What we know:
It is built from 8 helices and 8 strands, in the order E-H-E-H-E-H-E-H-E-H-H-H-E-E-E-H. By secondary structure, the protein is of the alpha/beta class. It has a 5-stranded parallel β-sheet, with helices on both faces. Helix 5 crosses helix 7, helix 5 runs parallel beside helix 8 and helix 6 runs antiparallel to helix 7. It is elongated and about 80 Å long.
Amino acid sequence: MRRDINILWLEDAITSGAHKDRKELVKNILKSKGYEGNIVDKETFEEAKMELETSNRYDFFISDFNLQGDQTGLSYLKEIRNFKGYKQFVILYSNKSNASLKQDVINFFGNKEISNLIFSNFTFFSTGRLDRKNFSDAINVILCRWDELNALRGQYMYENAELEYLLRQKCPEYPIDKPYRELVQSYFYDKLKIKRYSGKKYCGLKNILDNWLLLVNRRNALAHVKEAHHAKEGYYIQSIEDDKKEPFTIYESKLDKERSDLIEVVEMVKKLLENRS
């Protein structure tokens, strides 16, 4: 699992002690959660815009709300959303009061030329004694989808382990060192004698077999993955395969369906094992 988190930070007082303290705070929060924060600082709005145009990948963005001239953190948020369809989380902070910040946000989004899509996946807060809590809360939101992706990866491992155990209990005569995938195939062809059936009966059993083997394949594929971000689909994990195999990908945007499909197949297999001798 990838542990490095890349952050692009826009701050016009880049050498100030306050900025150094906030950077250290963010790094420590990430470290406490098992991640390493790699922060790239930019001092001006133009420098930050130029960095967006590079091939460097960023997992989330942080910006001072009050920038030089007539630019604000909301202007930067707009640039992030408009460039390459970035949907990553954006944290904005300011020494203004929360009431003043809220009014600035309301005024900004009152502009009819501003898309509602910009008004998502970001937070803002006033700096002060609650900095640790505010940054920590925002980072928790950012990491939760990553955690969900990896939890689903773990669920593939767990569900397959349970199905393999149930199958071995069902077929104690099979050698203990018989690979899981071969065990599934032997159960259908030797034990259930799937080939003796035809029509609807055959199709039903073949469907369960195919879906079960797909689960096995996905478990094996998810043993080694990379994490990345897609402009439209959000974060994703993808199996690392050789050139001959199509990688298996789980997208953040499709987490619920992927989880639902997994459980549907597991329940189908368990029902078969319970009802068959």
